[in-house]
């Protein structure tokens, strides 16, 4: 049900709001001292899979900055973990998984118990939904105005990590499989498409008020492969989720899609799109239908440095997008070295826009 004091839901439903709602990708993270404290007490997976901890971390940035959205503290790699792929987060390296490189590796994955394994994540969502919708439970004026966002990675981006076995500069192992064993890569994408749609539906049933599909690496693909591995699977997910929950907004974030953005919008039917900092927002504003909402696209590096430039960038962006649904966000996640005061500055600048 649409609650009118949730600015973010209003924008996700196609209206522009001034000043725009604001939240940041990776708003719960290492730049926050209270996050670093919890980080010493439990490893990454434990933090994701212990509802008390996931709830607490999700709320940390809301208490400080009264953001318009609380994004569930979790990770896009929880789904491969739930499918049975071992997952570790190694300090200084990031995620490490045993790579899926053969039919045998693929057949070890098991979709049957995947949703059961995500139960602690769903429990965190249930608790968070209660908290953000009860007066005074967060202890800020923001209570009841905060929208709870659930998320997954897109099949392509999650497949990148599953096949490569972790992060990579160019995901060359993934490209090798796409060109040399498209049948296996197609099976991985199909499995992820079904389980991602299912997982998003479960998150909505647990209380996610909007959901987001993170596609960090789809932009690397050629036009043909982008259609095959990004647009078509995303469209299937959108169709499945929308057929069950037509009123729940879905945000797509096809990072670095560049000139493929229009085909992503046309092909997926998504109404709100995350825009990365490399995109020319004034060009997009002229060429993309005014009904499509934009979320973005302040450079996370700008947040690190010059506050006068930051304020000017926020002002220019918000004025440019004043007549379209717009959610102020970064073009990618908050960097761990970001000074906390700069995040206050960003939020105050947005909230004080005239
Ligand atoms: O946005 C949020 O605050 C919600 C939580 C969230 C995390 N990861 C927490 C996290 C979300 C939405 C993600 C998405 C995610 N995870 C993506 C897509 C967005 C993007 O950044 O491109 C990707 C590619 C991942 C995979 C992942 N998780 C990597 C490559 C890493 C290591 C890099 C790093 O920053 O350390 C992670 C770890 C991770 N996920 C952290 C957080 C807060 C750092 C955890 C820590 O070291 O304590």
CATH topology: TIM Barrel
Residue-averaged pLDDT:
96
Count of structural domains: 1
H/E topology pattern: HHHHEHEEHHHEHHHEHEHEHEHEH
Number of strands: 9
Q: What would you report as the Rg, rounded to the nearest angstrom? A: 19 Å
What is the count of DSSP helices, taking H or I runs of 4+ residues? 16
Which sheet architecture does the biggest sheet show? 7 strands, parallel
Instruction: Return residue spans where pLDDT drops below 50 for at least 5 consecutive residues.
Output: none
In this entry the ligands are:
coproporphyrinogen III
What is the CATH-assigned architecture? Alpha-Beta Barrel
Strand content: 5-15%
Shape: globular
The computed structural class is: alpha/beta
Q: What fraction, in percent, of the residue positions are helical?
A: 40-55%
Per CATH, the class reads Alpha Beta
Summarize the SSE layout with pairings.
Layout (H helix, E strand, L loop, with lengths): L6 H6 L20 H9 L2 H6 L1 H15 L3 E3 L6 H5 L5 E3 L3 E3 L6 H5 L6 H4 L1 H14 L14 E7 L1 H10 L7 H9 L1 H25 L3 E6 L7 H22 L5 E5 L6 H8 L3 E4 L5 H7 L5 E6 L8 H14 L5 E5 L9 H12 L3
Parallel strand pairs: 1-4, 4-5, 5-6, 6-7, 7-8, 8-9
Antiparallel strand pairs: 2-3
Helix pairs in contact: 4-8, 9-10, 9-11, 10-11, 11-12, 12-13, 15-16
The structure holds coproporphyrinogen III.
């Amino acid at each position: 049900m649409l609650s009118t004091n949730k600015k973010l839901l209003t924008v996700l439903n196609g209206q522009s709001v001034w000043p725009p709602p604001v939240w940041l990708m990776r708003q719960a993270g290492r730049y926050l001292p209270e996050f670093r404290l919890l980080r010493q007490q439990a490893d990454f997976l434990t933090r994701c899979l212990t509802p008390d901890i996931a709830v607490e971390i999700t709320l940390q940035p809301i208490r400080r900055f009264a953001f318009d959205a609380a994004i569930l503290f979790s990770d896009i790699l929880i789904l491969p973990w739930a499918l049975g792929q071992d997952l570790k987060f190694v300090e200084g390296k990031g995620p490490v998984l045993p790579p899926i490189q053969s039919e045998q590796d693929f057949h070890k994955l098991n979709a049957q118990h995947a949703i059961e394994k995500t139960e602690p994540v769903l429990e965190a969502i249930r608790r968070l939904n209660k908290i953000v919708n009860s007066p005074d439970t967060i202890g800020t004026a923001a209570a009841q105005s905060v929208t709870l966002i659930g998320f997954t990675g897109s099949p392509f981006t999650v497949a990148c990590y599953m096949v490569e076995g972790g992060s990579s500069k160019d995901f060359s192992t993934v490209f090798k499989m796409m060109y040399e064993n498209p049948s296996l890569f197609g099976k991985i994408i199909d499995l992820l498409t079904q389980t991602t749609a299912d997982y998003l539906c479960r998150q909505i049933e647990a209380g996610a008020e909007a959901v987001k599909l993170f596609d960090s690496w789809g932009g690397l693909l050629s036009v043909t492969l982008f259609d095959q591995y990004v647009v078509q699977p995303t469209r299937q997910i959108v169709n499945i989720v929308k057929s069950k929950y037509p009123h729940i907004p879905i945000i797509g974030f096809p990072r670095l899609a560049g000139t493929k953005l229009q085909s992503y919008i046309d092909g997926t039917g998504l109404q709100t799109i995350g825009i990365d900092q490399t995109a020319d927002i004034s060009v997009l504003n002229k060429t993309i239908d005014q009904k499509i909402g934009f979320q973005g696209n302040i450079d996370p590096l700008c947040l690190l440095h010059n506050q006068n430039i930051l304020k000017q960038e926020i002002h220019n962006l918000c004025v440019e997008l004043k007549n379209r649904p717009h959610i102020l966000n970064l073009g990618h996640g908050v960097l761990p070295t970001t000074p906390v005061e700069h995040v206050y500055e960003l939020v105050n600048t947005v909230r004080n826009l005239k």
